[in-house]
# Entry
Amino acid sequence: MNTALVAALLLLLLGFAYQAGWSRSRSLATTGGRLHSRPVYHGSLAAIWALVPALLVLALWTLFGTTATRAYIIAQLPAEIASQTGAALEGAIARIRQIESGFGVVGETAPYENAAAQALREFRLLTFAVVLASAAGTGAIGLWLARRRITTALRARNEVEKAVRIVLIACSVVAILTTVGIVASLLSEAIRFFTFVSPADFFFGTVWNPRFSTTGSGPSGEYGLLPLLWGTLMVAGIAIAVALPIGLMTAIYLSQYARPRVRSTIKPIVEVLAGIPTIVYGFFALVTVGPFLATLGQSLGLQIRATSALTAGVVMGIMIIPFISSLSDDVIRQVPRAMRDGSLGLGATKSETIKRVILPAALPGIVGAFLLAVSRAIGETMIVVLAAGNSPYLRLNPGEPVSTVTVTIVNQLTGDTDFASPQSLVAFALGLTLFAMTLVLNVAALYIVRRYREQYE
Amino acid sequence: MAETLVPQPASDGSAERLARIRAGLSARHSRERRFRFYGIAAIAAALGFVAILFTMILYKGLPAFTQATLEVEVFFDPEVISVDPMPVQQQGQSQAEFRRAMTDWQRQATMVNWNRIVEAAVRNAAPGTEADSRQLLSIVETNARFELRDRFVADPGILGSTARVKMLASANADNWLKGNINRDLPDAQQQLAAPARELADRLYENGHIRFAFASHIFTNVDSRSAPASAGLAGAFVGSLYMMLVVIVLAVPIGVMSAVYLEEFAPKNRLTDLIEVNINNLAAVPSIVFGLLGAAVFINYFRLPLSAPLVGGLVLTLMTLPTVIIATRSALRAVPPSLRQAALGLGASKTQTVFHHVLPVTYPGILTATIIGVAQALGETAPLLLIGMNAFVAQIPGTPLDQSSALPVQIYLWQGNENRNFFEARTSAAIIVLLGLMLTLNAIAIFLRSRLERRK
# Structure
């Protein structure tokens, strides 16, 4: 269907309906007395009444149009061709469509093909005209009804506002639908996966070896979550060990010691780290940090691989620093000034005040920031894809390669595997685990932070 | 605080107490200094990481913006290029038939041994080289022959004449001339044979190879067979489409839902749930959105794989919480007096919000939008799950065509086997991506200060 033409006609209908409602209410106002709503609202109401039915008709056609056209083409074909299935039928339909579009096909065209193409051309024109006419017709009927309703007493503004309210509500439902969509899709695919592999084997298995997907085979391989979970926790733990001291001390220094000018220059620079895409961190880990750590380990007599839990963890820690520092900065600055002044007035040094008064008071907020940072680290993907080495075994040494939940999701879904095979479906079971873990962390963090805010506000 | 000074009458033992306090004081002060030092060390570490990261990327990436380029006289030899005249569409010939004839002719033109033409041109530029034809061709990028063919197809009249043609040197020759490879390594470890290395050096000395600005990084699409000519154009356009989808969908939906939640929604269980839900969505790992896209958009709605439209939809869902949260805080910052004044003058609730409250928040919404878009621009993981990591060697014409994206292109390039060459290329792509994000953020800051001043 000609999209531009339809859009132009819709715009025309919109303008015309608005104008009709507007001028009708104006003329009423000059002859019949005071209007309840201004003409703008009467115009808008008429436009809504005209446009909504027309859009409904067009939506119905986009939903069912392709099916109808296909059915028509098949009906035009001779019985022996129409009764074919699969590629032969598709090929025949494609040929008819091509002849109809005027592009032509290679080779001779059979007479039935020409006839079908001619019929299809007429069918297309006819349906286009019918759909357009019925859209215009319903629009016109809507407009006529709307125009008839216009009186001085019509509460057009209230009705338009009700429509606006409905649109607003529809928009806020999108966020809920997203969550519902996430939960539903993860759950349904994970349940499909659990028909292949029992949940106990998945959640408590210690071996991860999914093998390759072979068509028509059952679950080949072992799907133990524990090695991946261990890798995830190890990388996240290293990241937090790097980020928490640096981030927290940065926040403390910037909020308690630094002069305003120093603070206003350093804070944005540190926050630049938060805006860098994670793929860049991954590349940085792979090219710079990994080899550096490997040489460092060599000079210390330790065996550290270039791609290891340590590399990924350290770089992820760098990524999380601004996250912890700005969240802790917020909560530290929310501690009432009186508490700080009281401690200083009793003769405590600044660091004693910070350690014994400010930090305990800000602790819930800092714990919230910590939990959010952990949730971030667990869900981080690109750094570990590039720098963790992808080796799903239970190992204690952080200098060895590991694999994480997120890496495995990427690996299982980007290969040439059949979507319905357990090898692909396991990604959704892993995703569900990940989502549940981060959900618990996020909700706990949000709850703690909210309670903390209430305490001091 | 055991050491705290307690006022005492001056009596016996006071000197001793004073000494104890003094000793405690100095320990306390040194603890104070140590704490301060930790703070400074933490900041130095954080700033150091920023500095190292940017230095590394610039150091590795900047050389990739210039590339060894060969400029030689090429003779379009009629003896080598022996093809039929170009077909012309005849009366009554269908479009498809003509296309077939044209394709046949182009195939014929492709079958010409263009390498012989390239070889003759290079030999002409460096007479008396010892390199055999394989070695000689190894310093010219493999797409040089297709460029010559395209020139000929576009203008068959060029046959028999000479033209000055620029072609890219191969990735290995570029590495060699830039000194990325240790020149003292034995032959077995070198990518280029000794005569080819000598030839590259000679061409560089006599000025036929020069380092020219690599504009093809911005105009070419990705290429596997000719790595030196690989560019970002396809990925850039793919990212552009996705950002358009994000702006068109995320901003109106996000702003409207923020307006509803902040201004209209009754405070009850449901709106509380929506609030928690939005805050949680903002912290859901991006890869989960990718899983949603794979299961719902690709597998259920059967939208095409690798399409920027699908990527845009996934990124929209990811950006939505950012826009909603920022708009809500902007709305909350509007002074209540504004609302009360409008309501007091008889405006309806909707009129108050849309005519008076919302316009005040435009700077905030704009900034939030740009920051959200910049975030979406750098996102990689969810795009991998909806198939955008496929190799695509053309610029997508519509948002439904197959395409790559800038961060995904970085991911693909860093995995290329020709590490030596692609490390620089990847860093160059990162510079482009970071440059774009920096520009977006600068625009956001500029617009915010402009709009806020005007109020």
Notes: The first strand of chain A starts at residue 208 and ends at 209. The CA atoms of residues 178 and 184 of chain A lie 10 Å apart. Chain A has 16 helices and two strands. The radius of gyration of chain A is 33 Å.
